[in-house]
Amino acid sequence: MNKWVKKSLDLAASPGYLDKLHDIYPVDISVVRQIGSQVEQSIKAAFKSRNKERLITTLLDLERFPIDEPYVGFIRKNRAALGRNPKTVRRIYRRLEELGLPGILEGVSKPPSPSRKMGPAFKKWLHSLGYPVLSAREILETREKIAVLSGSDAALKKFAKHELGYRGGKGLDLVMKVGETFLIGEAKFMSTGGGTQDKSFRESLRFVKSSSGNAIRIAVMDGIAWARPFQQRSSKSLTLYKSVEKLGEKQVVLSALLLKQFINSLA
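== Restriction endonuclease ==
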């Protein structure tokens, strides 16, 4: 088994694993969204009058739509689509009607999901480790032993493509220089198995298995990726997540809590 995978599994099974992770991925208990009394009255009036388009239009003006609806994004950008797609309007309205007025008001007031803040949290933590955080030009010229590249996920990907021969469609969460060696990486916190989380896990494994470019690839994973003893034997995700144990020695997947240790091993 890859030694960094083993270290991560051992770490996750030790006391305080989740407690320590909170320093990297803090859970922000956000306050509810405020919609204002006038907007609330507009929602109530549209609901009581059973005016489909008026209700949906009122809700589209808010930050959060009360139901998970895949077509809402399109309609937000093109309101004229409401008049052109009566079946879609009826289907969305039926779901809102089933939810009821109290459910609608609760839905539009919900705070952002904590899981959506995990990506920026990792980068903020990485920049707090004490390594110099440099621009693209600076990191190419620096004589610092260890340095972190600043920038958005897209900017990191652009640098990796132009300077390191990286070929990949997704942005990166990490680009670092250790001596004369560059690291590129993805960071994931997986809170549940199934769906998009399983897809995200597979993408990270494909990322570390790829050999394009001249940088060391790492996948920084935390959460249920390391929760073997706590999953049911019949779980499909168990079989998927156990596949990380079959990675080669140079295919590095590890907990964020081991990142500094890994960097020091290269330095």
